[in-house]
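Lab channel / #folding
Pinned by the channel admin:
"Please post every new chain as: sequence first, then the structure tokens as a reply. Keep commentary short and put observations after the output so the thread stays searchable."

First post following the new format, from NK:
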Amino acid sequence: MDCADGDCEHDWHYASARSTLGALERGRGIVAARLRDRPEDAGLVYECIGRDTRWNHFLDSREVYLARLVRELRLDLAPVVAQLRACGPLPPLSEPFDPDSDADMFDPPAGVLAVLALGGDEQARETLRDYVRSGARWTDALTIIARWWPVAWWDDLWRQAAARAGTVEATEFWPAEQPWRRWHGRDRRLDAAFDASVRERPVAAVAPRGNLAAYSEARLLNFLLDVSTDSGTLNLTLGTARHQGRQLQELLNLAERLGPPGLTGMFSVLLELGPQMAAILHIRTTETGRLPLRTFPDVSAGRKIAMLSDALERLDRDKDGDWCGYDLLTEQLAQTLAGTPPTAHRDAKDRLVRRLIHLTACSPHTYERASYLRSLILMDPEGAAEHLPIFLLDCEADVRLLAVRHAALTDDSRRRLVELRDDPVEHSHIKAAATERLQTP
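Reply from TO:
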């Protein structure tokens, strides 16, 4: 959490965004560049691997970012490996969250090792393969391995998985995901575990948690309607609908079932459904003292700008450490302001640009950073181009891609583009975009 002070119910808080640690926790490129010249602070990387600092574990990214820091700062892998092996089994979702448990300590070292292995680190590769044979959270390790490695690197591990299939709860398997999907039919012990998983949670048969973007509206709605859909998949489904602008009109009928509206999740999706839902939300938010965030399409640009600006100011006062809702509001405000004459609403435009720059630095919602930068590019293309080179080192792939395409071509940015192009751990579409951008005169 990022509360103004420690007098709250949260067990942990982000460090100040102005500090080196706070910038690392938020996955910012500026601190990645800074640490190259300040090796005395390199130990802070271990601190960020020591606890998962992602706000949203389904949407935020850290693996490539942290792995690059470990590699470039030549940090010893021993503490990372020790942390991986020290993690016990993941507690059942039915148990209350224990802030002193190691639940948030597994994904960072496993993800870092998986990415380092992809870059050619044999110690990292063998550590993870050995962990599948003897580690407590071996099913999670296999899911991470299959997400990052080529099939040839992990396909033979089905034998170890089959031998251990009866040692974990059925709900640890997601038959629609890799590697389980590929291994279906290989061994009766695995198939029995997959069948038990589907009986416990039917949505697991068809819902790969990390790849909902290509699903149709009908399939997304099925996940929401299915009573067996766990909270993580529900959250990811709503997030997919929200960030892709899916027009799921049927959600109007689900609003009451899925709970009262908040600034995230259901509320954010419903905001996009037009005047009918806006009217409902207007009544509800007025009753709770909140300004409705959706503006009607037939009001003037000036009125929209005033309402959205007021909503942002209210959010500043009421966010209580959550930072939720800014991307939706700033996107709408940027689009509205961009449609006005260049000299109109100058103060509002300047305030929004300053706010967007602040959000890219301070918000812990790193998956929203690309939204803020897109709005910044829309509002101030030239200024954004000068601001973007450091984002070539960002934790989020979407942010790095924006920086590749729009950053001013300075000597430093060209050097970083070459690094991205040639880095074996970078995503292929970003490497391709960097190759294309480097051909620009």
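NK: The longest helix spans residues 301-318.
TO: also worth noting, Residues 20-149 form one domain.
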